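User: Can you predict the 3D structure for this chain?
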Amino acid sequence: MNKLPEDSLKQVFAEHFKNLGFDVATEVANIYRSADLVVVDEDKKITIIECKISNVRKAVEQIQIHKLSADRVFIGMPFRNPRESTISMIKNACAGLLYLMPDGTVEEYISAPQLNDWLEKTKNRLLDNMNYRGA
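Assistant: Here is the predicted structure, written as structure tokens:
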């Protein structure tokens, strides 16, 4: 699974959340970045997942802008035993960590806290960019 391309990783996470009944879009324009995955629940709560094969530091940098329009943010990557410094970096960024396990399942390794910093305008623009048509 270490050779999994990033696009395939995004698709696995997208299918996981679609199978759970969430609205999911990939590569959604968000402010001046693109969110890898946007997951929306029935209450219009937004989760953004930045997928990376290995570069957690880069993912932490990228999610900083996503926190302005999301209720929660995660880094999604293939499973590996994380270093304590990696866990601290993710938690300090107010993010969570999703792992694609070797058996193909998805595990929430670090829970993402609820964010309250988003701006209603940026959240609504993100929903528009993903052509969200929920209730």
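The chain is about 35% helix and 30% strand. Residues 6-128 form a domain with the Trna Endonuclease; Chain: A, domain 1 fold (CATH 3.40.1350.10).
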